[in-house]
């Protein structure tokens, strides 16, 4: 079967790089071929899988500097038929790409909001009066750079090579350990090859709304997890968008949903929640799984 993997485009995005990493691992370890399909936004990427235009999607879910990618969480909550199959954590090293003679000639900088946010201290220091323009992805503005010698974009080294554009400044992210977690998402019940690394922790991501804003609404589900000795690796709240002050909770557990004590925990939690969604149980694909480095 030839799989299609949806991701944020145009080609050269960090998300495409993560998708390519998975594709190469898949082909090397199982012989299954796959093709990459770029979409204009992460929400459209996920909808492509929900509508069966693509079998898989790779989406960014969390950055070590900027926190959760809220559009990904919100869209996963809205789309019922999707399942997280795998996580990938990729280092992100931003470059400033431009055809300008020097930094002094730059008037505008384009990037995905995450790219602009992850380099804000650098931008304030080296390009304090430059206009920052958010784009749908780090690669969306790259085709304009050859025409506009006063424009720059924050993107990856790989993108600079793909579009044959010069890098005018390197390592411009504010924190050197910058990395992003991506999720590989499929339709429910699609069996997907997962790395079989025995010592690797399994995660389960869940999301729930609570029936009312009352004392203990969040504490009760958390107490269940504590009592059953299930460790949390992340908790995030998002507005329900129904009324101000009402929240959904996204929680990552260090356990597999098929384990009996996790099944009991989830059954008990469902009695305290309004809607409970099990987003998936998955491994993290180690970035050395291919034996070759992938860097921004
Ligand atoms: O725009 C991209 O290249 C993306 O894939 C989104 C993104 C942006 C910045 C860091 C990580 C992911």
TrEMBL record:
The record marks 180 as: Essential for prephenate dehydratase activity. GO terms for biological process: L-phenylalanine biosynthetic process. Signal peptide: none annotated. Coiled coil: none annotated. This is Prephenate dehydratase. The gene is pheA. Residues 4-187 form the Prephenate dehydratase domain. Keywords: Amino-acid biosynthesis, Aromatic amino acid biosynthesis, Lyase, Phenylalanine biosynthesis. It is an enzyme of class 4 (lyase).
